[in-house]
Specification:
The protein is an alpha+beta fold. 16% of the residues lie in helices and 37% in strands. The strands form three sheets. The chain has a nine-stranded mixed β-sheet, with no helix packed on it. A three-stranded antiparallel β-sheet has the order 2-3-6, with no helix packed on it.
């Protein structure tokens, strides 16, 4: 995963040099699908491997027009329970074609993951596609995409003032569904208090850009087994949150969330689940 993100940063330097007018001129379906930002990400992450678009395998839900470009809710639904028919989703990639940093998240699922479904909130900087690409255990790739009308999300001012954000920075909350049917995957949620500054917001008082500082890595484990590991970027919204699923343990166990940001800060939260 680290190698992929190193390559992504090399690609990002080229992408940021692309004229904005070129991106704005993308109009037709063919032009949108051949967006150079997407094509460069595709090659860096998947090479020449075939990617099928099959909503029965993976489905992305996103609003056609966002109410707030800085907080756009998206949901990824997998077509199978992890391990069903001997198959599972090994990796999930979220790409926002026209963001300054298109690779929003790359998630690896572990043995304690009940489903590869995921919900979060993202920033969208320009009209374009949001894509979810799933890599299955047999090596196949499937994609679902949605065109979202939103702009300015990566340079929008934060929802709370800087002092208030610093006061709560790093606080986390874990919650798990309590009424799930016996033996079925449990829905869980992680919320992290973090400004997730993109570095693209201008301070109106100083006329300087705020420093980029954002959550970089999220790890979740249950009963000693990995649920998921995610490499993320500032394309996730302020105060990142994830809804995910975990496989129940008859004896219960501890759910642990570990979060690292670009400033080298480490945050941790634990929740004991009963049998």
């Amino acid at each position: 995963m680290t190698t992929v993100f190193t390559r992504r940063r090399q690609v990002l330097g080229l992408l940021l040099a692309a004229p904005a007018v070129t991106r704005a001129q993308l109009r037709t379906a063919e032009e949108l699908e051949n967006n150079p930002r997407w094509l460069q990400q595709r090659e860096a992450l998947f090479g020449a491997r075939a990617i099928v678009e099959d909503e029965a395998l993976i489905s992305l839900q996103a609003p056609a027009r966002a109410e707030d470009a800085a907080v756009v809710p998206i949901a990824v639904r997998a077509g199978l329970v992890q391990g069903q028919q001997g198959r599972f989703i090994r990796r999930l990639v979220l790409i926002i074609d026209n963001n300054p940093s298109p690779l929003a998240a790359q998630i690896e699922f572990g043995p304690a993951s009940g489903r590869a479904d995921l919900e979060t909130r993202v920033r969208i900087d320009e009209y374009g596609f949001v894509r979810a690409i799933a890599e299955f255990s047999d090596g196949r790739l499937a994609m679902s995409k949605r065109f979202v009308k939103a702009s300015g999300g990566c340079s929008a001012p934060p929802g709370k003032d800087a002092e208030a954000a610093r006061a709560t920075l790093g606080r986390m909350r874990l919650a798990v569904q309590e009424d799930a049917p016996a033996g079925q995957p449990l829905r869980a949620q992680l919320m992290v208090s973090h400004p997730n500054d993109s570095g693209l917001v201008m301070d109106q008082a100083t006329r300087l850009y705020t420093k980029a500082q954002y959550v970089r890595r999220i790890e979740l484990a249950y009963a000693g087994q990995p649920v998921l590991k995610a490499e993320v970027d500032f394309s996730l919204s302020e105060n990142p949150h994830l809804r995910f699923w975990l496989k129940p343990e008859p004896r219960g166990g501890e759910l642990v969330a570990r979060v690292d940001d670009t400033e080298g800060r480490h945050f941790e939260q634990r929740l004991q689940l009963a049998a």
